[in-house]
Each structure stands twice: as structure tokens, then as C-alpha cells.
Amino acid sequence: MKVVIAHNRYSSAQPSGENVIVDAEIAQLSAAGVTVVPFLRSSDEIEHMSPAGRAALPMMPIWAPSVQRELRELLSSERPDVFHLHNPYPLLSPWVVRTAHDAGVPVVQTIHNYRHVCVAATFLRDGHVCHDCVGRRIATPAVRYSCYRGSRAQSVVMATSLAVHRGTWQSVDRFIALTGRIAEFLRDFGVPDDRITVKPNAVTDPGEPPAAGTGSGALFLGRLSAEKGLDLLLEAWQRHAEGSVGRLRIVGDGPLRDMARAAAASRPDVEYLGGTDNAGAQAAIRSAALVVVPSTWDDVLPTVIIESLANGRPVLGTAVGGIPYLVGDRTGDSAGWLVPPTADALAAALPTALADAPARTAAARARYLAMFSPTVVLATLLGVYDELASTRR
Predict the structure, then answer these.
(1) Which residue, 94, 119, 131, 370, shows the most beta carbons closer than 10 Å to its own?
(2) What 8-state DSSP symbol labels residue 378?
(3) Whose CA is closest to 37, among 74, 92, 64?
(4) 3-state secondary structure 123-134
(5) Do the beta carbons of residue 111 and residue 178 sit within 8 Å?
(6) What count of other Cβ atoms lies within 10 Å of the Cβ of residue 286?
(7) From CA 307, how far away is CA 285, in angstroms rounded?
């Protein structure tokens, strides 16, 4: 099996979980014996472009002719079984789908966000959920509000690309939806069920978790920003007397770091530990009894939840985006608790979740092994590849 993996890497100045996931998937596929041919671009290249290259940049999300020539040559020489696309913006362009099809190669795309409809990719504007562009052939509200990087001109380019390539996306042979929520988004976009496969991301198995009851307190681990719900969690925490529900540790960095520092300075049961590397993040998860994921937007797939389950730590999350799919939202299926994204609901759930967390250790670990381990996830992806390769154009 030979697969071309195409991805426009996000800027190194903008830490990206998507870049990490693509790198991990390439490594997992290679270890499984798949011949992976990377076709990668990086937004870091923009800084070093020639004047002519910069002049052509506004058109690249729509067409990118030099990229298409290079891809045609690659497909001709490598003759892959499948072309697997992740992020095409801004340097690859969705046109790569057409180029692959012209070469007779079936196309898979993993959907990491809502970019097919929303130029900002988040369904989030000015701190609140926004679906103004859903159902429109041209995303004019995105232009009006300068939704792409705060630039009206760049928003025009992205809105044009979405309009031009609506048919391109409809021609993709198989979409990988990271969660049931993404599958629903694709169905609303007009993609039939038989071209959607739900396959979450995987994280490396950290090994057997510590025994139930060895962790203590609650943990917030992630970007310190409004959409990740740090302010919501701190408001909920303030509704309990100091020390009455244990200790809250905050790990991460972002625009709300001063809020985290202020909370830690004002209450002895709140501790802000700053940012950390992956090893530090895993250690923080294992030292907690409960991980809280209080997102207020349609969070696609918070990796911290999968990492928490892998380490046998249940999750208290808000019922938005892909969080219910990850935590489990059916009786006997849950590795945690789900609440509406309000301070009242979060405050009410905290005492029960913290008290009952040790009893959910085994359920959390079992859910990881059944749904999110590399072995399980990779088997699903290889099944998609095999199916499409057998119908190669």
C-alpha cells in the first residue's frame, strides 16, 4: 500500500495539534508497513517567498498552479493507491483533490475543523458561537466581519475559495470525521453517509494508569483562552468555599494567563503551573483525580480528553462539539460527566465528579483501549485505504 499524505503545516508561531496528529499518523502508518509519500507545505514558507511568490499568494487557496504541477509529477512517478489530504490552506489549495482525481487516484480527507463552511474554521466569532455562513453559497458574513485573521481582504479570498470548491469537496471519495459531531457537520454539508467514516485521532498508550484513588483534585490542561472555558471554570470554582471541593491545578498558556495567575493568587486551592511539555502534561494528568474540559465552542476533538482516558482519568466536560463523543454520552458508555456550558451547571457537577472520579478510573481506561488506542484507530484507517484502493480510478 502506498499513500500520499498531503498537509499544509500551520505556522510554527501558531502551535498546532493538527501538525502533531499528522506527524503521528505518518509514523504509525510507516510502522505498519505502509509506504508513505509526504506532500507537505508549511505556512512558515510565506515569510521567505520571493516578491513574485507573494504576489501569487492571494490566489493559492483557490488554485496554486505550481503546486498542481509538482503534484502531477509526484503522482505520475509514485503511482500511489490513495491520496490523503488534511489541511490544504493556504499553499496547497483544494485543487489538489482535482489533480489527484485527474491522475485516477482516490481521495480521502480528514476533517479537523469546520473550514468547508466557516472561513475561521471554528464556528466562533467575537467570543460566541456563530453559524451565520451555514447554508450560504458565498460566505458574505465572513467578509463583513473579517473572520479570517481579522482581514477583510483575506476573508474575501477564503470565502471565494469555499464557493469555488464546494463541488470539489463533494467529489472527495471518503471523509474521515474525527467525531460524530463532524459526521453530522458533513451530512449537513451534503455528504452522504456512505462517504463518511468516523475515526478519531489516537494517542500513544502511556501504559497502565496509577491505581484508582492515587490522584487528587481537578486539572485544567490546555490553551488559556475564552473558547476553552477557563473563565467559565474559574467562575464555577468560585461558587464553592475554599478547599471544599479539593484543589484546582491549571496547566497551559494563552491570552488568559493573567486570569489564571490572579485566581491562584486569590485562592489557596487554585494553583497555576504555566505551560509544559508533553511529559509534564502526562504527569499532571496522572496526578489529578479529574480532568475538566469546559469548552464553550464546538470543540472538534480536544486531545486532552483522549490523553486523560489513556491515563485512567475521567473527564467532566461540556456537552459541545466532539466532547460527548469522546467522553461517552450513553448509560454504561460514559467515562465522565457532561454538562451544559454554563457556570451554574459546572459548579453543580464539580462536587459529585470529584467525589466519584476514583470509581471511574477503570471505565476511562477501558474507553481509551476500545476506541482511541493506535491499534484500533489505525485499523479503521487502513480499512478505508484498502476499500478505496480496490476501486482505484
Answers:
(1) 119
(2) H
(3) 74
(4) CEECCEECCCCC
(5) yes
(6) 17
(7) 8
* Count of CB atoms situated within 10 Å of the CB of 38: 12
d(CA 174, CA 380): 13
Grid cell 494528568 in the structure block, residue = 285
C-alpha cell at 41: 507545505
Three cell numbers, residue 372: 482511541
CA–CA gap between residue 125 and residue 131 (Å, rounded)? 9
Q: What is residue 314's three-state secondary structure?
A: coil
Contacts of 287 (CB under 8 A, 6+ apart): 215, 216, 219, 249
What b/e readout covers 210-245, taking b as 16+ CB neighbours within 10 angstroms?
Answer: eebeebbbbbbbbbbbbbbbbbbbbbbbeeeeeeeb
Amino acid at 204: T
- CB-based contacts of 236, cutoff 8 Å, min separation 6: 294, 343, 344, 346, 347, 350
CA gap 132, 123 in Å, rounded: 9
* pLDDT tens per residue, range 264-301: 999 999 999 999 888 999 999 999 999 999 999 999 99
- Omega cis (within 30) before 61: no
Please state whether 108 falls in left (phi above 0), alpha (psi between -120 and 50) or beta.
Answer: beta
* DSSP character at residue 158: H
pLDDT digits (tens, 9 = 90+) for 298-350: 999 999 999 999 999 999 999 999 999 999 977 667 899 999 999 999 999 99
